[in-house]
Amino acid sequence: HLWVVMSCFFVLQLVIGVLIDAINQKSGASLYTDLQRNWMRMKLRMTRLKPAVREHIPTSPFRLQLWQLATNERLMNMVTFVIVINIFLMASESYAQPAYWTDALYALNIVFIVIYIVELLIKFGAYLHRFFLDTWNLFDLTVVLSSVVELVLVSRGGTGGITTLRTLRLLKIF
């Protein structure tokens, strides 16, 4: 009986070994060294890369100025600073806050929305239809439009139930 058990065990090991070898040979990875496997992975990653889209620089003097302004590092830093200040002011709201602070926050909210709209107009004037090809520009457009909708609803006497849209502005920092 021991012979039967040992024979079954040996045959099972052979079958499993043949299956594993067949699987390894299908991918070919079993024949490569670690360095070769890394090279194959890198080559696969390189084939999946897409070429960078060449940036279109406007030829019109006015649009060129808008493009230079839209791609200016200082403007981007200023807008980021405005977003951070806006976040801090949004976080400063509280229940039963004084009326003067509510009015000040409302006025500052309008100022921030105007700044965001100006930024969008600069980018749209610089990029025209290419503006809509960048997903971050579309995200900014969505955030600004939701802020405008919220502002209009609150200014018409709404209770501010749509103020949850203001939290989208927090994501604008990214």
Q: What keyword list fits this structure?
A:
71% helix, mainly alpha, 7 helices, 174 residues, elongated
Largest sheet properties? none
Radius of gyration: 30 Å
Q: How far apart are the first and last residues' alpha carbons, in Å?
A: 71 Å
Number of strands: 0
* Order of H and E elements: HHHHHHH
Q: Structural class of the helices, strands and pairings?
A: mainly alpha
> Beta-strand percentage?
under 5%
Tally of helical segments: 7
Tell me the helix content: over 70%
Question: Mean pLDDT score, rounded?
Answer: 84
Uncertain runs are: none
Described by the principal axes of the CA atoms, the overall outline is elongated
Query: What quaternary form is this?
Result: single chain
Notes on the structure:
- The protein is an all-alpha fold and 174 residues long.
- The chain has seven helices and no strands.
- Helix 3 crosses helix 5 (99-127).
- The longest helix has 29 residues, at 99-127.
- It is elongated and about 95 Å long.
Q: What's the structural blueprint in terms of helices and strands?
A:
Layout: H1 2-27, H2 34-48, H3 61-70, H4 73-91, H5 99-127, H6 135-155, H7 168-171
Helix pairs in contact: 3-5, 4-5, 5-6
Q: What's the short version?
A:
The protein is an all-alpha fold and 174 residues long. It is 71% helix and 0% strand. It has 7 helices and no strands.
